[in-house]
Structures are given as C-alpha cells and as structure tokens.
Design a protein that fits this description.
493 residues; alpha/beta; 6-stranded mixed β-sheet; 22 strands
Length: 493
C-alpha cells in the first residue's frame, strides 16, 4: 500500500509539471524558428499575390498539346526493387537503355544517389512485363494518367484552357480526362504503361542515400514513339484554331529500335505540321531526358528551330547546351545548381539558337524565301530550388513575373499533392541572395520576402527568377516539370 500510495502525488504533480513544460516550450520557442516561419509566410503570400495579379481571360485560351500518353504505375522505388529481388549494386553505371535486371540496378544507383531524374527504355519486353506485374502487387502503388502531353493538357484545362490533345488512348483513359480536353487520335485497347520509381530525400538503398526526392522511369512503349496520332491531330487542328501549340513526349523515341530512316520520317511529318501552322500561333517544345545524341541532333533539325518557346529542367539544360556547342551529351549534371550557373547556361542557349535562326533566315533568302523556323523568344528552366525565365522584349509572351510566380507555386502544389500550400511541409533552399552570372563583377540580387520574384532587363530580353517553396512531404515528383511548365505558359498566352 505504501508503495502504491507514494506514486499518486508524483502522478498528480507530474501532469502539472508536463503542462508547464509545454507552456515553457511555447514561451521559449526559438526566435529563429519563428522568424523562419514568418519568412515563409511572407514569401508565400507575396507569390500568391503575384500569381493573382493577372488571370485567364473570360474566353478560355485554346491550346493544342501533342503527343502520346500512357498510364503511370507509381511505386516507392526502394520498396519495389527490394520486393522483386533486385539487389543493390556497388557499381553504379550509365546505360542508354536497359536489357536486364543487373543493368536496371546499376542505372538506378547511378541516378539515385545524386537524386537526378532519369527515364530509360527497357528493350526487354518480357522483363518489363514482369516488373509491371511485380509493381501491381506492391502495397501503396498508384495508377495515374501519364505522359508529357496528357499531364500538360490536364494542368492547362485545370487552369482555364480548352485543350486539343493528340494521342492514341484507350476508352478508359479518355474517360478520366477533363471535360475541357478533346482527344485527337486512334482508339487502342491497351495503353502503354510507364513504371515510375519514386524516392524521397534521404531514402536509402544499400550503401546509397538520395540527396533529393526524385524518380526513375522505365518504359517499353509500343505506340508513343511513332506519334501515331499525328494525322488526326493535324486534321482537327485546322478547326480548333489554337492560341498555342505544345509539343512534348518525343523522348519516347530515344533508343527505340526504329527501322532505318523511320524516326527521321516521323519527325519530318511533325516538322511539316509546325511549319504550316500560322505564324501567330506560339509553339512550345518541352524537353525531356534524352541520351541518344542522334535523336537530339534530329530535334535540333526538325523541331527546335520551329519553337519560339522551350521548357526544360536542370538536367536537360546543360545537356542541350553541350550538344549546341559541339560536345557530347551530359548524362548527369548537378541536381541542385546555383542560380548563376543556370542563368549563364540559359543565356548561351538563347544566344546560340537565335544565331542559328538568323543564319538560317539569311540563307532562306536564296532558298525561294522558304521559312527556316522562328526565333527563340521564351526559355523556361524549372529546378528544385527556383524557376527562371528569359522572355524577349516585345514578343507575344506576356506577364512574365506572374507566370514565374505561378510556376513556382505549382511546383509545391504538384509535388505535395495539394492545391493548398502547407508551410509546415515547405522550405526554401534557394540562397538568400544570388549572383546573376559567374562573370566577374556581376550583380548580386537579394531575395526579398515581400517581392520574391526578381526581374531585370538584359540585352533584348527580360529575366525573372522566383524561389520555390520546396515540398518536404513528397506525394509525387513524376510529372512535376510538365505541370510547372504548363502552368507558367497559361498566364503568358
């Protein structure tokens, strides 16, 4: 009895002590944490204000988006590899395409540790089917509409556009699309499936730890590489009369086993569509993960010269620049580049492509006046930490500051899986100030919480940079670039 009775006062006083401990914790809460919360709140409210500064017109903008699409099967990458018995490897290696499970392990390890996005074609259809079956049974898996074109179309429809989508889909696929999306393409029985291996920042696989959240995508497409909706899309385009034409999904051609001359023929038909479009229609090309230098060379010949707007991430930017300067493809770049590095690369891409346009235009004067494409007037690069845009003065693209803010906000909304931004699940990783270039004597611009989108003029263009409230509770990274790029375009049409 004595022992039990002696505990009662301590239990009574213990609850009182616990109460005061909580009060003291709140009272003495770190001023640094409070200041950080206030800072995030100010940045968010300022970005929202910038986004709302302009809106979509009462008449819904009309956007045509191609090509292809798929069903994404999304799984936790580490859990999936462990389940199917793919052991971690001590030899991370790059492969242009995948043939067996060992190459999958080595390729996944190559991109997993730095946290870099990657997409690879699985040439072994039997193995790919086995991987899909293994993923179907994994607890927590999710199915989603996938592919650059359907994802961008979905975002644009959500943001107030009427969309013509070029792709061959099953009836089940088209039934889940927005009512503001009209499909142009063939009806197929079974859609292509993409296996999305997602992983979080700090995830571990064997001896590897990821530096940031990202995804590794495996596909073995049968329909998308051929752009088999191109004819139907071109036909419906005449009556649709879009304000903007968006091209994406061409990475499905990367390392696909075409017959000789087949890929060039497909891209030539696409080039014909782009050249016969009205000059008043903006054309945006969304880059993706390419490892075959030949197809990028083809894109530089058939597609990119006809686009006046380009979108890409921090991996695809140095990749494109390297090829433009006559070097090899850069398979893996810094997944967290500094602002100055990205801006210098953007300036170079802008300069080189417009030099090529001018050279082609002067040459066309002796070629029966046939057009050789368009000047590049808009370049959008989306990174984990920030959004950056270059827009030519006097071009058709408007509201650059608001568009950059919207792109930034959309990054958090998509990755966190919520339209409402929860600051308890967000952080700023962009520096408190950034240099506009690595050139000596370059200006440094501080991040102002009340005006977080920094815009300034250079040469014949404006540059805008906005910080991203990086999502720390990741729902999905796949499709992030497509959502961000599409949201930025909506306010600039």
């Amino acid at each position: 009895m004595m022992e039990g009775g002696s505990r009662l006062p301590w239990m009574k006083y213990g609850s009182v002590v616990s109460f005061f401990v909580v009060l003291l914790a709140i009272w003495f809460r770190s001023p640094q944490n409070t200041a950080l919360d206030d800072r995030l709140d100010t940045v968010l409210s300022s970005l929202l204000r910038a986004e709302r500064k302009v809106g979509v017109n009462n008449a819904r903008p009309r956007v045509a988006v191609g090509f292809g699409g798929c069903v994404d099967l999304i799984v936790d990458g580490v859990s999936f590899l462990n389940k199917i018995g793919v052991s971690h490897t001590d030899q991370p290696l790059h492969y242009d395409y995948l043939e067996n499970a060992e190459q999958l392990a080595q390729s996944f390890a190559y991109f997993f540790a730095p946290g870099a996005a990657a997409e690879r074609f699985m040439i072994n259809e039997t193995l790919f089917s086995e991987l899909v079956e293994g993923a179907r049974d994994l607890p927590g898996n999710r199915w989603s509409v996938g592919g650059n074109a359907p994802v961008m179309a979905g975002r644009m429809a959500t943001e107030g556009c009427d969309v013509l989508l070029g792709g061959s889909f099953s009836t089940d696929f088209t039934e889940v699309l927005s009512q503001h999306i009209t499909v142009a393409g063939k009806v197929i029985e079974e859609p292509d499936i993409h296996l999305i291996l997602e992983y979080s920042s700090g995830a571990s696989w064997g001896t590897y730890t990821s530096r940031r959240a990202n995804r590794y995508i495996i596909h073995s497409d049968a329909h998308n590489p051929y752009l088999d909706s191109l004819e139907e899309f071109a036909e419906k385009l005449k009556d649709f009369k879009p304000d903007l034409l968006v091209v994406g999904g061409l990475q499905m051609m990367d390392n696909f086993p075409f017959n000789s001359g087949e890929r060039e023929a497909v891209l030539s038909r696409l080039a014909d569509l782009l050249t016969t479009s009205s000059p008043q229609i903006g054309i945006h090309f969304e880059m993706a993960s390419f490892v075959d230098e030949n197809i990028v060379d083809d894109l530089l010949h058939y597609v990119i010269p006809h686009a006046d707007s380009l979108g890409m991430n921090e991996q695809e930017l140095p990749n494109l620049l390297s090829l433009l300067k006559g070097s090899n493809i850069t398979v893996l770049s810094d997944p967290n580049p500094r602002v100055a590095t990205v801006l210098d690369q953007m300036r170079e891409v802008y300069r080189i492509l417009n030099q090529r346009y001018k050279a082609a235009s002067s040459g066309s004067e002796t070629n029966h006046g046939k057009s050789k494409g368009k000047p590049l007037t808009r370049l959008h690069v989306h990174t984990l930490a920030f959004q950056a845009m270059i827009v030519t003065h006097g071009s058709q693209w408007k509201n650059t500051m608001s568009a950059t803010a919207k792109a930034s906000l959309t990054a958090n909304r998509h990755v966190c899986g919520s339209n409402d931004i929860d600051l308890s699940k967000a952080r700023l990783i962009m520096d408190d100030s950034f240099s506009v270039s690595h050139r000596e004597g370059s200006q440094r611009i501080p991040l102002q919480e009340t005006r977080p989108v920094s815009c300034w003029n250079e040469d014949d263009y404006q540059i805008c940079v906005a910080p991203v409230l990086v999502c720390t509770d990741v729902y999905q990274t796949a499709g992030g670039g497509d959502n961000v790029s599409a949201a930025g375009l909506v306010l600039q049409i």
